[in-house]
Amino acid sequence: MEDDKAEMGQVITARVRRAYERFTCDDTARIPFALIGHILLITAVGTSIAINRMDVRAAGSMTLDTGITAPDSALLYAEADLARALNYAGMDALKKLGETPVIVPVNSSEYNTTGSVEEFNMNWAKAMMNRSLFLYLESNYMYDSFVYKGYTVNVKPPGHWSDFKLHRVRTKLNRPLEPPVLAPGDSGYDTYWLASVPMRVEVRSTDTGRVVMDRNITVSTLVTSRYPMLRDLTSEYGERINGTNAAMAEVTAIANAYTWARGYLQYYKTAPRNIVDNPGLESIVNGALLLDQGFVFNSVDPMSLVEYVARSRGTSAADAYTNTSLVNGSMKIDTRQEAFNSTGDPTNASKFYFAEKSRSYNASSIMDELNNGSGSQVANKINEIMTASYSAMMYTDVSRRQYDIEFGEHDGYPDDDGASAWKPASEPVLLNITNRSGYMFYGELWSIRWVRDHKWHYSYERCDTIDSKSVCKIVRVYTIVQDYQNENVTLRVFNSSSSDYTLHLNTAGTSNRTVNDVADAFYTKDVLVDFISNDTYIAIEPTDSNLEGTIAVYIGGTFNTGKMDVVKTYGLTGATLKWDTLDGVVRTSEGKWSAEVAQAWADEITRRINAEVSSNSSINFETYPVPSDMMRAVASDLINQIGTNESDYVDKGKYYGNGSYESAGIKTVSLVREWYVDEVKYRINKSYNDVADTIDSELDRNMSEDGAANAKSAARNGAKLMDSVIFPIGLTMRAYPVDSNGTAAEGLEAWSENVTIALDQEPDYLYMNQSNKTLITLGVRNINVFGPTGIPVLPTNPMVMFNAWMIEVQGKMNKFTVCDADNEVHPNPIFGHEAQVYVRREGEVLDPISGRRIGYNQPIKFGFTTGTFIAVPPGKPIGDTEKGIIETSPYFGEIK
Fold this sequence. Notes:
Layout: H1 2-24, H2 33-61, H3 70-99, E1 104-105, H4 117-140, E2 146-148, E3 151-156, E4 165-174, E5 189-205, E6 211-223, H5 227-240, H6 246-269, H7 278-297, H8 302-313, H9 317-323, E7 330-333, H10 335-342, H11 346-357, H12 364-370, H13 377-389, E8 392-406, E9 415-419, E10 423-424, E11 429-434, E12 442-466, E13 469-498, E14 501-505, E15 510-514, E16 525-526, E17 529-533, E18 536-540, E19 543-544, H14 548-567, E20 574-580, H15 592-612, H16 627-650, E21 656-657, E22 660-661, H17 664-703, H18 705-718, E23 725-728, E24 733-738, E25 753-755, E26 757-762, E27 778-784, E28 791-793, E29 800-813, E30 815-820, E31 826-828, E32 832-834, E33 837-841, E34 843-846, E35 853-857, E36 860-872, E37 886-888
Antiparallel strand pairs: 1-35, 2-3, 3-5, 4-5, 4-24, 5-6, 7-23, 8-13, 8-20, 9-12, 10-12, 11-12, 12-13, 14-15, 16-19, 17-18, 21-22, 24-25, 26-30, 27-29, 27-37, 28-29, 29-36, 30-33, 31-32, 34-35
Helix pairs in contact: 3-4, 5-7, 6-7, 6-10, 6-11, 6-18, 7-8, 8-9, 10-11, 13-15, 13-17, 15-17, 16-17, 17-18
C-alpha cells in the first residue's frame, strides 16, 4: 500500500510538472507568452492601485490648510475628479477617433461646421466627450450622489458639445534618423489636445439643505492621448508618398541605381536585355514606401520589411526573416548591391558600374576640332592675328607755302572781274627729299608754278540821239591777263596706326583693341623667342623686320602713284593718300616664323590641358543623376581648372611689358596664346552645354515639360539618398513643444518626452499581380522613352548616347495602423492599458451617439510619375530590347 501511494505521488508530481511546463513554455517561440500575459495582468493591477493611491494623496494634500472649509474641500475634490473624468472622456473619444477617423465627411452632419475634415473630427470628439461626461455626471454628480463631510456637490452637465473647447498643443520631433533632403515635420505636429468645458456647480448642506455655494467653473485638462500626433504623422506620410514629393524622390533614387547597374552591364555585355522592368519596379516602390515610413515615423512595419527583403533578394519570407539582422534597431540595405544582384551577374555589374562612375571627361576632342590641320580654326586665327600684327595704316601729310604772286599788267583796266582757277603753269619740280626722321618716314619738297586768267575792265558813258531823244549808257571794255604764283609743296609720310587688332574673347566676353603697341614697330630687330615641340624646349633668335617693309611698299606704291595728283591739286592740305596694308598689300612674309611658333604653343597648351585637366571624380552619375546636370557640371569644372592655370598657359608677361610688345611676331604669338586658351574654355562651355540643352529639350519633348522637370527634381533629391537605405524599427524619438510657427518653447514650458511608433501595413507587400486580386494594390507602367537604341547627343560629334524611362506608379495600402507604442493610456479590462492607434482603411464611420453614418474612412492612396536616365559613351545602343517600349502591369489604372 505504501508503495502504491509513493508511485501515485510520483505520477501526480510528474503531471504537475508537465502541466507547469505546458503553462510556462512555448516551444514554438523564444518567449513564454502565457507567463508574460500573467505578468502583464499583475503589473496592470499594481499600476492601477498605485495611481489610485497617488490620486488620494494629491486630493488629501488640498485640505492641509486649516483655512479651507469643508464646502471648499468638497469643491476641490469635485474639481479634481471632474478634470480626471474629462481626461478619460477625451481619451475614450480619441480612442474611437483613432480607430475610425473620418476622412470624407457627410456634408449634412452637424459636425461639419466649417468644411474642414480636421474640424469635423474635433467636433465629433467633443460630442463623444460630452456624452461620456454626461453619463459620469449623471452617476456621480446629480441627485446628491457626491457627499463629503456633510455637503453634497451637484453639477449641471454642459448643454451642447459646442461648449467644449479643444486647444492644440504642438511639438517637434528630434529623430535619430533624419533624411538628408525633404525632412519631415518642419513646423511640428499637433500632439495633444487641451480640453476645457464650463459647468454649473452647486454645494449644499446635507443637514439643512441650504445651498452654500453656487458658481460657474471651467474644468480643463490635458487629454493624455497622442492621437493628434498620430493623425498628423499619418497625414504627412500620405502626402509624402503621393505626387511630386519625398517618395517620388526615393523611388527615383533606388530606380536610378537599378537603371545604372543594369544599363552599364548591358552596354558592355549586352545583357540584361531589359534595363528597367516592372518586377524590379514593384520591389523598388515597396522599398521606397518603407524608406519614407522610416523617415517619418522612425519605424517601419517589420513584416513588410521581411517581405521586401524576400522579394528583392528572391528568397522566401522565412529565409529573409532568419537572415535579417538589425544594428541599433535598424536594417541597412546597400541599394547598389541589390541592383547588382538583380542583373544575375553582380560581379560584372559592379565592375562596369564603378568603371563608369570613375569615368572622367576632358577637352581633348574639342581641342582636336580646333586643331584639325592647315585649314583649322587655329591656323586661320593665327593667320588673321599675324596679318594684323604686321599691318600699318599710312598717310601723307600735305602742307603748302605760297610766294611770288605775279599779277598781269592791267593798266587802264582798274576794275576786277574775277579770275579762273589756278592751273599748273608747268610740271612740278622736286626740290628736296627728306629721309626718315623721328615719326616721319619720308618727305619730298616740290615747287610748282601756277597760272590763271584774270579779267579786268574799265567803264565810260556814251550818249546817242535816238528819235530826237538823247539816250545814254555805260559801256565796259574788258581785258584778260595772266597771273602767276609760285608755291612750295611739302609731302611727308606718317603712320596713323600699327598692328591694329581687336581681340575678341568669347569666354571673357570682351573685345580688346590692341594698336600701336609694338615697340619700334618700323625697325627690323633680332628677338629671342622660345617654344616647346614634341616635349623639347627650343629657343630661336629670328630677325623680325616688323613693319619696316611697309614703308617702302607704301612709298613705292600709293605715295609715288598719287603724289603728282596731290601736288597738282591746288589748296590740298592735310592727310591724304591713306593706305592700310590689310586693304592692300599684306606684309606677312617676314612674320612666317611667328605663325610657326604660335602653332607650336597652341600644340603645347593642348598637351598641357590634356595632361592636367579632367573632370573631378565627384562629378559622376551618382552625384549628378540628371545627365544634363552632369554635362554642365563637367563644363564648369573643366573651365575652372583651365582658369586656375590660365596665366601659365597664356604667359603674357613673357611677351608684353611697359605697355608694348617687343615685336610684331612676338605680339602674334602672345595674342594667339591668349585667344586659344579662352577659345578652348568657350568651346568646352558650348559643347557640354549644347549636350545638356539637347538632353533637356528631348526630355521636355518626349516626357512633357512638367513631367521632365518633376523627374529631374526627384532625381536630384534622390541623389542624396544613394549611399544606403536604412529601415528602422521603433527608434525612440524625442518630442519638445513648439508654437504654431514651429519655434521651440523656453523656460518651464520646455519639457520633452519620448515617442516610439509601431506600424502595421496591410498587405505587408504591395503586389502588382496576384491570384488573389484583393492583394493587388500596386500598378506600375514604365516607358522606354527613346526606345531600344537610345539617342546620340550631337554637339558636333556624338559625345554620349542617352536614354530615359518614364515610370508611372499608383497604389494603396488596404489598411495602415499607427500605434503610439510607448504611451499606453487607454484602460483595458484584461491587459490593464492599451496604446492609442490611428487606422486608415476602407469603411463607413458610424456615430456611436446617434448610430448614423457621418462619413467614411479611406485607405492611404498614392500615385506619381517620375523617370530615370542613363548616359553611356557613344558607339553602342542602350535601351530595352524586349517586352516592348511600354510595359504595363495587369491592373494598372484599376487601383481604386
